[in-house]
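Reminder: ligand-aware prediction takes two inputs, not one.
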Amino acid sequence: MMNIPDSKNPRVVIIGGGFAGVSLAKKLKNKNFQVVLLDKHNYHNFQPLMYQVATGGLEAGSIAYPIRKLVQDHQETFFRIALVERIDTENKKVVTDIGTIYYDYLVIATGSTNNYFGNEEIEKNSMVMKTIPEALSIRSLILENFELALQTNDMEERKALMNFVIVGAGPTGVELAGALAEMKKAVLPKDYPDLDVSMMEINLVQGADHVLDAMSKRSSKAAEKYLKQLGVSIHLKTIVTGYNNKTVTTKGGVSFQSQAVIWSAGVKGAPVKGLEDATDRASRLRVNSFNQVEGFDDVFALGDVAAMYGEKYQFGHPMMAQPAIQQGELLAENLARFANKQSMKKFVYNDKGSMATIGRNKAVVDLPNFHFNGVFAWFVWMFVHLISLIGFKNKALVFWSWTYNYFVFDRESRVIIRPYRKNRDNQKSGND
Ligand SMILES: Cc1cc2nc3c(=O)[nH]c(=O)nc-3n(C[C@H](O)[C@H](O)[C@H](O)COP(=O)(O)OP(=O)(O)OC[C@H]3O[C@@H](n4cnc5c(N)ncnc54)[C@H](O)[C@@H]3O)c2cc1C
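Here is what comes back for the chain with flavin-adenine dinucleotide:
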């Protein structure tokens, strides 16, 4: 049904056109394989800049890249928009919403999904930011809340509409909090002169005793200082227990009245059905050092969905772009070796460091042996993100938006293109 022709070459089916799937597909270009790349979207999403889409700093199109364009000059590479429903390893087939496809080698690169730790109330009522449509929903919600705040004279209601609670102070939570604080300072007072924008609160709630807990102590401290300078209220050692669409409750008894709760407190693997025996507690697929899924020679997993346990990475590599890219690149080489009955190379993660930005001139960078923060770190952050974007057009668009926003103190994309109907009275949330 997918109309993929037969080939004399072995077929590699890759599920997922994210960092891992795309890096593998690129490296398999014009090799002796037929490559079938499946993704439920027709674009590759540059997640590290998604918070800027959510806060009006960038247009969605500047962080999305058409997958077809990525593989258009590859011989024997076929892309299909398909949601994979399950895999059948016994019959070597992948079942999708547009039909079934058989494989010689299967690569699962489906990434991760949000982890609510079983809390259905939070899952139902909070916003998340894993996909571009979700980032656009957050953008609409921010702006809609301000429009509603203008319309009410009920001060409690107005405060709740202007109270943004971000749960989880990892890079996503910290970057989003910083960007919201910058909107409060430079953009919203100009747009809403008849509203007291100083009533806007940004509450960043974190279970651990410091922010950015995967980064160095120095970076964590610096990020905390920057956030406070920007007026973000940080609540450490505070575990959120519920959100009923009006009130956020926590273990320590602190509560927040809010009409905008963003959940960035947990992720877990997003494996497809059919490999339950190889799935670990974090919903990741256990793989060996060649990325082969436990129990299989011909099924591989890469990136966020893969858990390669090792001495240094007891629970698998960090769910970040670099492990995904590096695993994808090595697997291209290993598939060729495997097909030629040569021994495969073990994956060794080359940790290039991590970074986060908190706002204009404020970023923290952890290199393997060196940590720094401040203006220079911010330029490094911008440079690294700019060169990592796929495609000249996206690089140019982002560079232009950043330059414009820097000099004009603006976030030009604050438009409600796709209204978001928030569940304010226990009705269903969604997009119009
Ligand atoms: C908001 C945010 C900010 C981030 N910031 C950073 C950062 O600054 N630095 C960093 O290193 N990392 C960052 N990350 C993490 C980084 O984006 C991930 O680690 C990386 O994307 C993992 O790559 P992947 O290929 O494993 O998965 P992904 O890039 O998530 O790709 C998975 C792909 O699989 C597709 N897919 C999933 N399930 C199915 C299915 N059933 N059928 C068909 N297709 C499917 C998805 O559509 C997607 O295209 C961030 C993540 C988020 C959400």
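Residues 15-21, 38-41, 47-48, 50, 83-84, 109-111, 129-130, 171-172, 270, 272, 303-305, 319-322, 324 surround flavin-adenine dinucleotide (CB under 6 Å). The first strand starts at residue 11 and ends at 15. We will return to this case in the review session.
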